[in-house]
Automatic annotation (TrEMBL):
GO terms for cellular component: membrane. It comes from Paenirhodobacter populi. Residues 172-789 form the Pyrrolo-quinoline quinone repeat domain. SMART domains: PQQ. The chain crosses the membrane at residues 12-29, 41-58, 65-81, 87-109, 121-143. This is Membrane-bound PQQ-dependent dehydrogenase, glucose/quinate/shikimate family. Keywords: Membrane, Oxidoreductase, Transmembrane, Transmembrane helix. One of its GO terms (molecular function) is quinoprotein glucose dehydrogenase activity. InterPro entries: PQQ_b-propeller_rpt, PQQ_mDH, PQQ_rpt_dom, Quinoprotein_ADH-like_sf. Coiled coil: none annotated. The lineage of its organism: Bacteria, Pseudomonadati, Pseudomonadota, Alphaproteobacteria, Rhodobacterales.
Length: 816
């Protein structure tokens, strides 16, 4: 029997029917395309079911509600079967359908029914119960984050060694605290019990944000602390000294950098500190304080390719260093287009020499400056040696009319040193450009993607270990090689731990470069535009946990079920794109078709590097799992797109496009993201993991950061979620560890510095930052006997974090 329908409510029901019919049509259209590519049939089947449900609702049939309820039950079963019970992976699969399903519980729907069995309590209960389960899932995600996190319940391993710092135990005298790059502090004032009481002690602003001109420049520095002062470089390479207790400026040296051709991505991540031996001090030249000028000095690089030396006490230039306190690093490089070559990491001091690598612009052309590694006398600035991969055994400066070999692999990451062995250790990148290898020379292939050990006095190669063969994925080694002694079969072995963008973590004997933990050559994917050059195998550190984010239970590490998005439509779009692309597993060779590659250009591990507890032999590292989408563009297509190398003129910049001039292909590269700016891979995207280097087992692994400052990108606007739910956000920057059992890390998209328990990975404290903390923190004991933790908060354009120019120090409250 037909019942009278309240007209306004019938209209609402018909509008709803139109809306879900359109949704069903989109599901069916995209679902059909996905099914044709060999993907899931869920979206096609569900789309048809929703369309039929909409037609029944339009006609006032109660069967529309029954069918929609059945679809919800089917969706729930399908989703849980695909990904299990995990908040973030279920979110785009369930939230949309169930939110629309709430309409069937309203009077508008109930009063619109004119035929069919009215929804009984049981029928109403289906969407209600499933909606409640969504709410429960939300609460579960808020509380726990990730069912797949590794948690430690056994406590910390016992200390098996005693750490003896080379400098004062409360100071931070190198980029990685020590020359070994451990990022470990023996300080114990801040503990897991009292860390919750940390508060802002002081804040310093460099004056670089908002930018006075040009693009915003990254502030990614890790300061040094020596005596009563904190030293660092600003985004424009000014060198600054602050009072370590108050944060007040002692002095500032204006570097007067020429920013022509230099992009906003250019960064100064650190400076070096050097004390001149008493016998070498020139007492005839005094600083403003009446002491020998530059007896203690700060060495800093610039983005316009200079090396500066200033007095640590006054900031005056070291007139006896180079040319009145500076060295032109373009010497010997031939033609250098502005912005193509500079030093992005802190210089290293080893055996009396300043050792530097250099950043070379990514992907512009084959004719870029040399990636030569150089050393200069730390007192006089006189050239000491060069390691040019194209003329390996000639360590001299090129003669008149000559230059260092152009386009060679470079070393842009932090450098480590062992003065006892007389060696420096560097990670290398590949020969420009990144995504094509047909033009590369034998020495390019030999040195790329490697850990390189050089004699610190002469520049002669001592050993080389390659982490990736024939790199066409930008898998350059950007993490600092970290030096730690390990007990192996009852013998103390001087080891080197190298984290990589690939997520492979190699443990080598730093005397010889031979693996301490097993490395095997395993079969690698083949194909691409130069299949004859692709390596048949790649090295895998099979005894160490990997930081790749790939699932060893899946044949290729990830599959269609790992796709994600902000909504069901994003999810469907990402699945279609994944099926359209070629993915044969990690290191799938690029071609003129699209490929997915993972870990992507961010890593794995990037320049932030790991931190090491040398007493308990624990490695802590934050790492990323963000896939990229890559296609090689034939030169005619690239030319039609207007891709060309930057020329350094006003209005041009280096690093945006990857035109790859001089080879047959440009490269179209982007993060694998949905149209709404949501990642196409399910969370997490950033992890913090602790590894026991003695047992080679993961101690714990936790998501890095919450969704509080993450969100969707609409146009160029980031709409933040403001949800403090554990997400695992990608990031750049590193961690530090302390003897008291704490890990300090920011790095992620969450605008906070976090203190984690070294034993469990639990977050014990958060300090909100005024901008993104995409840098590595440091800690020191101040003149007032308080331990400070300092982080640069400058944001990062790739991470879409809030830009700024802040250096923020935290400490425990002063005692009365």
């Amino acid at each position: 029997m037909t019942e009278t329908v309240t007209r306004p409510r019938a209209v609402v029901a018909k509008v709803f029917a139109i809306v879900i019919a359109l949704i069903g049509a989109a599901y069916a259209w995209g679902g059909g395309e996905l099914a044709a590519l060999g993907g899931t049939w869920y979206f096609l089947i569900t789309g048809i079911a929703v369309i039929v449900s909409a037609l029944l609702v339009w006609r006032g049939s109660a069967w529309g509600g029954w069918l929609y309820a059945l679809m919800l039950a089917w969706t729930w079963v399908w989703a849980v079967h695909e990904v299990g019970v995990d908040f973030w992976t279920l979110l785009p699969r369930l939230t949309g359908p169930f939110l629309f399903g709430l309409f069937f519980l309203t009077p508008w729907y109930r009063d619109s029914i004119v035929s069919g069995p009215r929804p009984a309590i049981a029928c109403k209960g289906i969407p209600a119960a499933l909606a409640l389960s969504i709410a429960g899932l939300f609460v579960w995600g808020f509380a726990t984050g990730d069912l797949h996190e590794v948690r430690n319940t056994k406590g910390l391993p016992a200390a098996v060694a005693q750490y003896t710092p080379a400098a004062e135990p409360g100071e931070w005298t190198n980029y990685g605290n020590d020359a070994a790059g451990t990022r470990f502090s023996p300080l114990t004032q801040i503990t897991p019990d009292n860390v919750k009481d940390l508060q802002v002690a002081w804040t310093y602003r460099t004056g670089d944000y908002p930018p006075p001109e040009g693009p915003n420049r990254r502030f990614e520095v890790t300061p040094l602390q020596v005596g009563g002062s904190v030293y660092f470089c600003t985004p424009r390479n000014d060198i600054v000294s602050l009072n370590a207790e108050t944060g007040k400026e002692n002095w500032r040296f204006n570097a007067n950098v020429n920013l022509r051709g230099v992009t906003g991505s250019a960064a100064c991540r650190g400076v070096a500190y050097h004390e001149v031996a008493a016998a070498q001090q020139d007492m005839s030249v005094l600083n403003g304080a009446g002491h020998a000028l530059c007896a203690r000095r700060i060495i800093g690089p610039t983005v316009d390719a200079r090396l500066l030396a200033v007095d640590a006490e006054t900031g005056e230039p070291c007139t006896g260093f180079g040319d009145n306190g500076q060295i032109d690093l373009k010497q010997g490089l031939g033609t250098v287009i502005p912005g193509y070559s500079y030093v992005s990491s802190a210089p290293a001091i080893a055996s009396g020499n300043i050792v530097i690598g250099g950043w070379i612009s990514d992907g512009q052309s084959v004719d870029e400056p040399s990636g030569v590694i150089r050393a200069f006398d730390a007192v006089t600035g006189q050239f000491a040696w060069a390691f040019d991969m194209g003329r390996e055994h000639d360590h001299a400066m090129p003669g008149p009319g000559e230059e260092f070999t152009r386009g060679t692999p470079n070393s842009w990451g932090p450098i480590s040193a062992d003065d006892t062995l007389g060696m420096v250790y560097l990670g290398t990148g590949n020969a420009t450009p990144d995504y094509y290898a047909g033009h590369r020379r034998d020495f390019d292939n030999a040195f790329a993607g490697s850990v390189l050990a050089l004699d610190a006095r002469t520049g002669e190669r001592r050993w080389l270990f390659q982490t990736v063969h024939m790199d066409v994925w930008d898998m350059d080694v950007g993490s600092q090689p970290s030096l730690v002694d390990l007990n192996v079969n009852g013998e103390t072995v001087p080891a080197l731990v190298q984290l990589t963008k690939r997520g492979q973590n190699f443990v080598l004997d730093r005397r010889t470069g031979e693996p301490i933990y097993d490395v095997r050559e395993l079969p690698a994917p083949q194909g691409g535009v130069t299949p004859e050059l692709v390596s048949k195998t790649q090295p895998y550190s099979v005894e160490m946990p990997e930081f790749s984010g790939l699932d060893p239970a899946k044949p290729t590490g990830i599959d269609e079920t790992d796709m994600w998005g902000a909504t069901p439509f994003d999810l469907m779009w990402c699945r279609i794109k994944f099926k359209e692309a070629r993915w044969d597993g990690t290191l799938t060779p690029p071609g003129t078709d699209s490929i997915v590659f993972m870990p992507g250009s961010l890593g794995g591990s990037n320049w932030g590097s790991g931190s090491f507890d040398p007493e308990r032999k624990i490695l802590v590292a934050n790492w990323n799992r963000v896939p990229m989408y890559l296609r090689l563009l034939p030169r005619p297509e690239a030319d039609a797109m207007g891709l060309k190398a930057a020329d350094g003129s006003p209005g041009t910049s280096v690093g945006g496009n990857v035109p790859q001039m001089g080879v047959p292909y440009a490269a179209g590269l982007s993060p694998f993201m949905s149209p709404l700016g949501a990642p196409c891979l399910a969370p997490p995207y950033g992890m913090v993991t602790a590894v026991d280097l003695t047992t080679k087992k993961v101690l714990w692994s936790r998501r890095s950061g919450t969704a509080e400052d993450s969100g969707l990108t609409l146009g160029k606007t980031l709409i933040k979620s403001h949800l403090p739910i554990k997400l695992g956000v990608p990031g750049l920057g590193g961690s530090i560890t302390t003897k008291s059992g704490l890990v300090f890390v920011a790095a992620s998209g969450e605008q906070s510095l976090r203190a984690m328990d070294l034993a469990t990975g639990d977050v014990l404290w958060k300090g909100r930052l005024p901008a993104g903390g995409n840098a590595t923190p440091m800690t020191y004991m101040g003149p007032d006997a308080r331990q400070y933790v300092v982080i640069a908060a400058g944001g990062h354009n790739l991470m879409q974090t809030q830009p700024g120019d802040y250096l923020v120090a935290f400490a425990l409250p002063k005692k009365d």
